[in-house]
Backbone:
């Protein structure tokens, strides 16, 4: 039988795994709607619009109190950067997933996240407590980059299905 304490410890890990598990579908969906609408930016716009509507609905259903915007306006400039970076990620997913595949895109995203996170920890940026670089952390980054090469490697003998394009022969 699971204890409440064990559930509270496991739940964040399970939710983080679930969040990661849905990303390939988000990237593929954004790319597909972008193709259907004629441009990857429309895919990003659609994704962010639907996301906004879902968050607004959750705020209303959960009756979350109206925030004190004054406190946020008095904070550092980087409090607002999340929306810009989120839009960049969603647009990048819509544009790059068709070219790299879901696995290729996401393994590069993870590599970028880890490299940036290790540097952010080292320098203690954006209010993070400093965690200095160590040989183990650098080795972890190198292993992740090796994983990128293994997942995205171009040495396979069969072309990727998404990379195959039909060439129309001229008539006559």
Residues:
């Amino acid at each position: 039988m699971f204890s409440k304490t064990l559930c509270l410890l496991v739940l964040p890990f399970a939710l983080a795994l679930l969040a990661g598990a849905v990303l390939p579908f988000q990237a593929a969906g954004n790319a597909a709607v972008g193709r259907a609408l004629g441009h990857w930016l429309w895919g990003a716009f659609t994704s962010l619009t639907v996301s906004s509507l879902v968050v607004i609905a959750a705020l209303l259903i959960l009756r979350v109190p109206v925030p004190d915007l004054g406190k946020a306006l008095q904070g550092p400039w980087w409090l607002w950067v999340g929306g810009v970076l989120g839009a960049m990620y969603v647009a990048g997913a819509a544009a790059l997933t068709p070219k790299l595949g879901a696995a290729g895109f996401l393994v590069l995203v993870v590599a970028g996240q880890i490299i940036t996170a290790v540097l952010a920890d080292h320098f203690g940026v954006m209010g993070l407590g400093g965690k200095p670089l160590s040989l183990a952390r650098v080795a972890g980054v190198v292993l992740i980059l090796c994983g990128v090469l293994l997942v995205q490697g171009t040495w396979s003998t069969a072309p990727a299905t998404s990379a195959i394009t039909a060439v129309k022969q001229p008539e006559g």
